[in-house]
Predict the structure of Sporulation protein YabP.
Amino acid sequence: MVEPNKAKHQELHLLNRKLLDISGVLNVESFDSEEFLLQTELGHLTIRGQNLHIKNLNLEQGLVSIEGTVNSLSYLDPGSNSSGKGLLGKLFR
């Protein structure tokens, strides 16, 4: 969970659409070879592509590296605070 006085911070680094490094990750909600759903400090982030897989995962430091062909990145609820309910809880309010 994000500390109240800690500033939210996130970096995305995409190299040649093949390697994506993300900081500020709180949880990996779901993933398969075509889509990842990550809970980040800045909202839920969806990554879509082909042959996606996790290269590195360190949730203690909030870091995730994903390999594959990245087609899109989109935030589902940018800037929202994580309430701990998860995505389904937010959908069925």
Remarks:
- The CA atoms of residues 14 and 20 lie 5 Å apart.
- The first strand starts at residue 12 and ends at 15.
- The domain at 12-77 is CATH 2.60.40.2000 (Immunoglobulin-like).
